[in-house]
Amino acid sequence: MQLGEKLKEAREEQGLSLDHIQKETKIQKRYLESLEKNDWSVLPGQFYVRAFVREYAEAVGLDGDALLEEHKEELPTHTDQPYEYVTPSRSNRTSDGSNPMFNFLPKLLVVLLVVVILFAIYYAVINLMEPGDSSPADSNDDNIITAPEDEEEEEPAEEEEEQDTEENEEEVEEEPEEPSTQIEVASSDESSVTTNYEVSNTDQLNLSLESTGENWLEIKGDSVYFSGFINNDNSPLEYEIEEDQVHLNIGSTQGLTIYVNGEELDYEFDPEENDDYIRQHIYIDLVEE
To answer: What residue ranges are annotated as transmembrane (predicted)?
Structure first.
């Protein structure tokens, strides 16, 4: 009996469906079907054949290592195979801060500042002229010298204008600071090397992934954004996620850096500390406040 037949027989004996195995192992159903048929060509690479067989075997109660040893002649040899890269379902979009509004904002602030200054000068001139116009009439009627009183009245008016101008300038120059995106670990499971992250203080979810080597990964929301290998040729991968949750199935995290809204995502399970953490499942949820 072939390796795939043993896996299928064990699954059917336990009354398990392929959908159940997919949920348990996080391996796509089409890969599970190819394992049962001993068809290795569908799998993303020879590196994943043994890993997928071992996880499938453990899910149906078999000894994965013993099964691999028993059927090692059926497994593919380590030869290079061409891989088909899956083009992302939509164009990558980046937020590089090139919004025309940001270029126009400094000019708008300068215009507002000039308007405030001109208004302050106009207001000061009006206050200076009014006492001067009324003083001749007062001197003719009452024959009283009012110049000293006018000077005393003008000085507080000028001081008030200067204070108003400074306050207006401060109001124009001060801009509210936008809160930065917060990323927190909501839950994690070391046995399946799965981490759930929550992203808050934002209403959008932008992903950017950079690789210094070659990593297989799958990015999936309601549809698959990417499935294949990322390396120096196609790095970085950048996506604007339309859903509130995205799932990253990562075959190898070594040399792979993930950014969420420009903030680097820290691995809850550091692959540099333990080889068991190389393959990980990461779920990112957008939490709107």
So the answer is: 108-126
How does DSSP classify residue 239?
E
Tell me, yes or no, whether 282 lies in a domain: yes
3 state SS of 62: coil
* Strand 194-200, strand 280-286: pairing: parallel
201 and 281, same domain (yes or no): yes
The answer to whether 164 and 170 are in contact (CB under 8 A) is no
pTM of the model: 0.40
Give the domain extent around 20: 3-70
What strand order describes the sheet that includes 237-241? 237-241, 205-211, 256-260, 263-264
Residue 251 lies in a domain: yes
Question: Residue 238 in 3-state DSSP?
Answer: strand
Whether residue 51 is found in the same domain as residue 118: no
Contact 9, 35 (CB under 8 A): no
The 10s digit of each residue's pLDDT in 148-179 is 555 455 566 666 777 776 766 666 566 556 56
Residue 236 in any domain: the answer is yes
For residue 213, give Cα distances in angstroms to 104, 137, 236, 256. Answer: 41, 90, 12, 8
Alpha-carbon distance of 21 to 30, in angstroms, equals: 11
